[in-house]
Amino acid sequence: MHLAILMTNTDDSDFAAAHPGDGAKFTALIRSVRPHWTTQVFAVKDGEFPTDLTPCDGAIITGSPASVHDPDPWITDLLALIRQMTTARLPLFGACFGHQAIALALGGQVGPNPGGWVLGRTQTQITDPAPWMTTLPATTALYAAHCEQVTTLPDHARTLTTSPECPIGGFAIGTHVYTTQYHPEMTPAFIAALIEHLKDDKPARVITRARASLEGPADTEPFADSIARFFEQAAG
Fold this sequence. Notes:
By secondary structure, this protein is α/β, with parallel strands linked by helices. 31% of the residues lie in helices and 27% in strands.
């Protein structure tokens, strides 16, 4: 299986440079459960878009500190590419910004989190599991870092997971689109470092809650397996 990773992370700070990029994070996540799969990273946030996705069995859209509502040309181009990929039924997985971009591109809506920032380890309830999610626990723990969320689903989409702070925690469209508002690619060390990096920029209550949330583990491997199963079932 060969996947395109559409890298949207616009963070060019020293903090970001000290850690693996999102392309490397998602490659490591996938290879943790499918060691022989290959990936190709496209820095779409720099205008680097694939000219031909035919060699790819699917695509992943990463997270980003950017907003899907930003006027940057690369975001407009990404939304157009999402529509092309879904029309062609190329299997597509999106996380955080990717989840929101897919929703917006296909007619959904994205708005601010009513409660402000969600940061750290959080839990989401699986309410309508897709077939590729059968090995996930009913309450799935993942890392989060977002201040916006999908507020209205696109046509033909169904909500997969929900929580009080994020009612549309993930959605699916048929068997070719799978999303999550969360960050399965983040490691415990990275989310801990991110929280400390953000401590002077976010409200104290957000940082305190985020630090405390890390006492429990995330369901990283089961979620990675669900992503792999999604691409496998889409390929038939």
